[in-house]
Design a protein that fits this description.
Elements lengths: L1 E4 L2 E3 L4 E6 L15 E7 L7 H11 L8 E6 L5 H20 L12 H19 L8
Helix pairs in contact: 1-2
């Protein structure tokens, strides 16, 4: 079980990890070990509430496949275990962010005084610009 919050946990069977060879330099040992981790989490098949699933899909962006599978990849460390911990923490962080319900926006109207102030500044600016014209000789 992976604990997300004190009240929410997801089972190890809800996501899969695959270990692949990391790219980049690393010496003789790099060709023998698979230290990079690819984590796949099926958002639609998970036990998360529906509203959390929707927010998680929006947060995932390009990390979400056409099938609705969230794919996270980590190869920052030489250690497979550290990459594994990092990718799991990133998944937990994404789910924590999706749990937060955004406050609904309340539309507001500008006050009468702010409308007058805006019109006055437009009039003043118009006057300044009109004075920049060509000077006429009479």
């Amino acid at each position: 079980m992976m604990q997300i919050t004190p009240t929410l946990a997801i089972g190890d069977d809800e996501f899969s990890e695959r270990f692949v060879k990391a790219s980049g330099p690393g010496g003789q040992h790099v060709n023998k070990t698979s230290s990079a981790v690819e984590l796949r989490f099926d958002v639609q098949a998970s036990t998360l509430p529906e509203d959390v699933k929707d927010r998680l899909q929006r947060l995932a962006g390009s990390r979400l496949t056409q099938d609705g599978v969230l794919v996270l990849f980590s190869q920052g460390s030489r250690s497979q275990e550290m990459n594994r911990q990092e990718v799991r923490e990133r998944l937990a962080d994404l789910i924590r962010r999706a749990l937060h319900k955004p406050k609904p926006r309340k539309p507001t109207k500008p006050t009468y005084a702010s409308k007058l102030k805006r019109l006055e500044s437009k009039t003043r600016r118009s006057g300044v610009k009109s004075m920049r014209g060509r000077v006429r000789d009479e």
